[in-house]
Amino acid sequence: MSITTRLVAVGLMLAACSPTAATQPSPTAVDQTALETPGQRPQQSGPLSGGSADHTKFEVLQQTFTTGPEVTEACLSCHTETGQHFMRNIHWTWDYVDPETDQQLGKRHLINNFCTNARGNEGMCAQCHAGYGWKDEHFDFTDQTQIDCLVCHDGTGNYYKTPNNEGHSACSVMFEDMPPLDLGEIARNVALPSRANCGTCHFNGGGGDNVKHGDLSTALIDPPRTLDVHMDAAGLNFACTACHITKQHLWAGSRYKVIAKDTEGTGLPGERRDVATCESCHGLSPHPIDSVRAFKLNDHISSVACQTCHIPEFARGGVATITDWDWRTAGKTHDGEGYHEHGYTQGNGEQRYTYKSIKGDFIYAEDVVPEYAWFDGQMHYTTIDTRFDDSQQPIEVNHFGGTRADGDSRIWPFKRMRTWMPYDAGNATLVYTHLWGVDDTAYWGNYDMGQAIARGMADFGLDYSGEFGFVETLSWWPITHMVAPKEDALACRDCHAAEGRLAGLEGVYLPGRDHNRWLDLIGILAVGLTLLGILIHALIRLFSKGEQH
Amino acid sequence: MAMRKVLIFGRFERFWHWSQMVLIVILMFTGFGLHGFHNLFDFETAVTVHMYAATALLILWLFSVFWLFTTETWRHFLPTGRGLWQVLRFYSYGIFRGERHPYRKAFWRKHNPLQALAYLMLKVVLFPLIWVTGLLYIFYFLWRDIPLATTWLEAIAMIHTGAAFAILAFAFIHVYMLTTGHSFREHVAPMITGFDLVDLNPEEEAYLEKDQPAMIR
After folding, report:
1. Model ipTM?
2. Beta strands A395-396 and A468-478: pairing type?
């Protein structure tokens, strides 16, 4: 019952927003027994596993809590420094300044080519903020009692969150009739975060199951070995924090700061490296050298990311990802009411929406072969401040560089997301769109994009020309989860072939793929002419006077 | 002067020749497979076999070089212009007229001038081209961080492939030559039994009969 409840809640919160949604079976409701059986085996959380306290015995938790912040205060009464630690991480700040590019990043500021922007839509989007009650600019980021400990540490599976403001009535109806929370029971049963805890938000980014990343879906709550060799519920059973190791509530491994090429490996004996790279566990020579094959594979490490061979496809395990999104068709209604259409049945049998009035059209894909490119780990974003040349479409919401020669890059797999999204056609910038709100300008309710953009920009004092259009955008998502078992990794010929996966990749000589046309031509001609010469010589011998000796 | 059957290809030389042949055939098949000309083997099998065969061939060549110099047999491969024209003329003209091959094997000159030149070029040009580039290729991991490494690698790969084409052409001509003059079987036989007809001077004949009776029939 427990995890199912959570998933129903998440599904309702994130997957759909329309009057009919509440009557639909939840698209993320999963068979309950399948989830609970492995749940009894504790997941591996890396160095933190074990534990030294039983929270059911804590006196401060023997009470009835009526609000989340009350629970947080109880937590902080023992974990005295944790609040200060926690308030530094991006789950709380949603704010990150790239030290290399000085770009202002973080969910609080960025525009993505899914639901476009959290900014101004916190009433809905900040359900995935690890705090309580962020609905507008007045949220107090210095108040540690507003930290939501339970969303990550709930061990019962019963915890859920609802939007921080109710939004338009067309959407808020979804969140009625949720079962009441027993916060005391949940507080007494806190645990290290399981995959389901992290997945509450990270598996549902972009507005639904696996919509955004492609390699993070609810299929990873209870994955078989074939889906992810580390998270395999019946095997290694890694929690997310086994790799994303944690120190004072700061996590290793971030999309904002990618280590595209780890040259340190496991570090010194006993040394803890606070990184989430494959090499930090597997070392710099990960294939045991027992053959020429293994030797050559280790040779690839300097130029090929582990993920490139070991994640042959993403969006595996029966949950699709969205690869194309068209906001141009959003806003169609039936008699003024929004609606949605099913049109895609994914591998696990669930229906996915291919059209929603509030979002437009979607294209789904499963078992997707990634795009491959040299990647130096540094992302550059098109932010709200970036003016671009809209005659040069598609516009890359994020882009990256990297070459064979720069020493930092390796060949990485990516999900490519293509979206037609609203922009300021006068200023050639992306826009903040006011999607969720209790007012009459929110797009999710009144379906007027012009008003929603005008409001979204005006709220933050941003210049808006008043003229919007739609721009074709791309975004790039490094693929790093859904690591397949070694027997399913790519074979040499997948790349070492004329029409292989790396057919378009430049900057490297790839045997089996690369040929010098002239050399081959001359070589074949030379051998061919030799044979022809031999043939002619032999024929003349045959038909001339004959040989004596 | 007497034509006698003399042991001109010793046991090691025959072993060298045939194992070299087998290894080169293996290297040709796997190499052109890796190059993308055929798909008879999967890539990793081809790489593995190619690497092992190349290693074996390099070891064989180490022994053969040692053997050539310690036994003084390297002198058979010294280039000479004497008689070269006649041999060339024979293959391009005389052979069609039914003429007799102008060359007679001598005890210290078992290859005709054209053969000696061809084998010498193989040993000092084509083989070094392929093994030097092959070793550079294998040890790419040691120098891959130098500037323009992939450009160098591509050039090395081109030389390696080009040399392979040339060796293939050589092999075809080499085999075809066995059909000229004597029958194919008679031409191959010396490399199996070791014995071939050699024009001996009386001193050589006397020496062999007295001191090396096993080498003369």
Report:
1. 0.89
2. parallel
